[in-house]
Amino acid sequence: MTLFITYALTAGILVGLSRQLNGRLALSTSPLIASFFNHAIGFVFLTILGLILGNLLLPGASSTPWWAYLGGPVGVIFVASGSWLIARIGAVNTALLVIGGQMVSGVALDLARGAPLTLWASALGVVLILAGMALTQKRR
Amino acid sequence: MSSPDAPQPNPLHLLAAFGSGGLLTMMVFLNGEAGSHGGALFSSWLAHGTGTVAAIIFLAVLWRRRPATGETRAKAPLWAYLGGVSGAATVMLTSTTVNTPLALAGTLALGLAGQVVFSLAADQWGFFGLPKRRLGLRDAGAVALMVVGSLLIILFGVGASA
């Protein structure tokens, strides 16, 4: 269990590391070029890994609906925007606002499609996130 | 530390970051659909592949010659190109941990903790050539509110009653 906790913590650190590296690359190139390299090099890395492990294309893969292919293009915009923002508002603001936006939109999505949701916790969470955003904006 | 407090961030930049979290929700949903058909490795591989093609198209559409201002930007160090490896490794770790007793909620909560610790250190010391930002008490309060709010949603809000 300690191993898996370490895995999950490391995953969070790697998200930050990735954004930091892409942000640095964007300074020398552009956010969109940084996003291109992020995807292209990640693709090469995953292709090699998949060939070694031999489980890249499982039988169900071909039944993936076409619209699920759009995750990549959305990711290009996401990585480019993060690479642009991190040099302007810093790593902490970028990380927390992205997470906050993910949480609030996730709650909205679940509400919209009638997924199970504990309303008091979700609502209070949204309020706290918005309060945190307001606090970064308050004049010193 | 002699560096001044971080400047007031532009509210439009903060809104853009918040909005990009919505893109992340969309990505998780779309990539999750691909993963339910072909597994986590296929899903990440597919997203990186279609993303590469999309980036080339975006670049081709938006391409324009940089005006010759005489300003030359420093070349990026080679390690700056490794963000994609770090991102791909993330998927391997999280697709493992969601299938342990940690489940999705534990994976998200611990990932949030990892991101907060890393980004605090990154701003404090200006990791990898990005600007240093010294955070004040108000920033610390904002971080605390957003962390607690996100943890409430992850641990007690979404899917907890399922």
UniProtKB/TrEMBL annotation, chain A:
Ranges annotated as spanning the membrane: 36-54, 66-87, 117-136
Name the record gives this protein: Membrane protein
PANTHER family found in the cross-reference section: INNER MEMBRANE PROTEIN YDCZ (PTHR34821)
Keywords, sorted A to Z: Membrane, Transmembrane, Transmembrane helix
Presence of keyword GTP-binding: no
Entry annotated with the keyword Nucleotide-binding: no
Cellular-component GO terms for this entry: plasma membrane
InterPro entries the record matches: YdcZ (IPR006750)
Segments forming a coiled coil: none
Pfam families tied to this protein: DMT_YdcZ
Highest taxon of the lineage: Bacteria
UniProtKB/TrEMBL annotation, chain B:
Transmembrane segments: 12-30, 42-64, 76-96, 102-121, 142-160
InterPro entries: YdcZ (IPR006750)
Keywords (A to Z) from UniProt: Membrane, Transmembrane, Transmembrane helix
Entry GO terms, CC: plasma membrane
Taxonomic superkingdom: Bacteria
One Pfam family matching this protein: DMT_YdcZ
PANTHER family: INNER MEMBRANE PROTEIN YDCZ (PTHR34821:SF2)
Name this protein carries in UniProt: Membrane protein
Organism of provenance: Devosia psychrophila
